[in-house]
Amino acid sequence: MSQMIKIFDTTLRDGEQSPGCSMNPKEKLIMARQLAKLGVDTIEAGFPASSPGDFDSVQQIGQAVEGPMIVSLCRTDDADIQAGINALQGAKNWGIHTFIATSDLHLKVKLDIDRKTAVKKAIRAIEQARKYTDNVEFSAEDATRSDPAFLVEIFSAAVKAGATILNVPDTVGYITPQEFAELVRRLRNEVTDADKVLFSVHCHNDLGLAAANSLAAVAVGAQQIECTVNGIGERAGNASLEELVMAFKVRNSYFDISTNIDTAQIYPTSRLLTKLTGTMVQSNKAIVGANAFAHESGIHQAGVIKNALTYEIMKPESIGLTFNQLVLGKHSGRAALKKRIISLGYDVSKEELQKIFEKFKQLADKKKVVYDEDLEVLIMEIRFAGEEKYELLSVNVTSGTETIPTATVVMKVDQEEKPAQASLGDGPVDAALNTIRQIVNIPCVLTSFVVKAITGGTDAQGVVSISIEWEGIKATGRGSHTDIVIASAYAFVNALNRLELLKKSHHLLEETEELSGI
Ligand code: KIV
Ligand code: ZN
After folding, report:
1. 44 and 161 inside one domain
2. Ligand 1, residues 99, 168, 170: which to mutate, most atoms within 8 A of Cβ?
3. Strands across the sheet with 462-470, in order?
4. Where is pLDDT greater, at 480 or 199?
5. Is 434 in contact with 444 (CB distance < 8 Å)?
6. Which of 2, 240, 416, 444 is the most exposed place for a label (fewest CB within 10 A)?
7. Statement: residue 513 has pLDDT above 60
């Protein structure tokens, strides 16, 4: 019988705290529901002490999402632990994840405490959490640059205090697979009562070794892996869920390990995350990148035509990537549309389906074929319509070889329609963005602007990704339309709405204690 490894998903915490990946509470709830459908064992839903927004979001997820255990991240301070408990108390299946740094570097430079104090703080936090829940995970932050003997000491104390999971994070993505295996093996052998708890690993990808390190730890007895969808996370990201799960599946005869993941949900989950965050995966990303199942060279194509196994080690369908034969266009009906939406991994209500159908018909009038990517954009537009601070009502531009580009824009701010404004620009996009900036009156700087056609042909929808920065806060937005200028305007407004969200949590963070090291 193969060994079962638990998948602890931290997309909504470690992943969400990385640049360009922030989500609002509604987006986090949608993602959490999809993670439950994917079959993860644990969802780390956020860091409740960091902001009221994160608190609410963790609370909502705890109440609404069934299946996985929902976990709050907390430092070892009383207030943090209490916030984590308050957010989840009453949820069906929940736990607390508390952490403190253990490397001398972090203890000295970041926390200004000695090892003895760190142990005391860990014990106190675990005992406090155990009064409310039987599920308490303890992490030794920067474990891989910590003195292993001290790790044995603090982990032994954590078990005695009631921790049920010990997590070994490679916080800065520094270790190599062999070294990590040695460390985890030593901890399992030397920590007192190690057999009474579960060992977990949490690897970052700074040297591109996060998946390899996680697999090496599993080989020596780690029973839980912490990871994120698309590998998002601090800096170079976390170990990527899809890489680990598919490694176990594809190389089952080698690993003999199983997980509770429904691999057919991997691709829809990855797509959903890119839609919610506006951050795309690189095209050569393992498993979920656009090129992961694409064959360019003649030799490869010839091989794949004869037998896909020549150059494919897994079937696209095994991750839920289907190549649909049925074309959706203006003659398609509601039933075909619904079927396609479900096959893309979305659950939509009757009302949502009706609204999507209406928008679909409008788009199908402009485009001959409505592709899956077009449809996903429509679904997102419907789901998030009318809930944000800024809404673009209309944008009209004049441009050409003999005229100065001018844009006229009408927007709603806080649900109130503002008078139309106009301004000039170096080009039509510049004019549109200048006008929007004028209306919202936020002097943000545009730091990146990327246009991509999501489908082929001159009627393709263009997807524009925009990054902006205002007083050190960075936000990313995404918009799509068959007209690039309109797509750009949507992307800019989307980025401004995300900036508003970040501004709120940023101000609250400044008022609370400084967030250290996560
Ligand atoms: O990378 C890290 O050390 C973390 C901990 C909070 C587990 O994210
Ligand atoms: Zn981390």
Report:
1. yes
2. 99
3. 445-453, 462-470, 473-481
4. 199
5. no
6. 416
7. no
Q: How confident is the model at residue 305 (pLDDT cuts 50, 70, 90)?
A: confident
Counting from 1 in the atom list of ligand 1, the atom nearest the Cα of 167 is 7
Which pLDDT score is estimated for 454?
65
CA gap 324, 321 in Å, rounded:
9
CB atoms under 10 Å from CB of 491, counted, come to 29
pLDDT of residue 304: 79
Any residues with Cβ below 6 Å from ligand 1, and which?
Answer: 14, 99, 139, 141, 167, 169, 171, 202, 204, 518
Residues 6 or more apart from 457 whose CB is under 8 A from it?
A: 368
DSSP secondary structure code for residue 313 in this structure? S
How far from each other are the two terminal CA atoms of the chain, in whole angstroms?
Answer: 37
Do residues 199 and 187 lie in contact, with contact meaning Cβ atoms separated by under 8 Å? yes
Residues 312 and 409 in one domain: no
Position 326 scores a pLDDT of: 67
pTM score, whole prediction? 0.80
Q: Which domain holds residue 439?
A: 390-508
244 and 343 share a domain?
Answer: no
Tally of structural domains, the chain: 4
Give the tens place of pLDDT for each residue, 75-102: 999 999 999 999 999 999 999 999 999 9
Give CA separation, 138 vs 83, 100, 133, 142, in Å. 17, 8, 13, 13
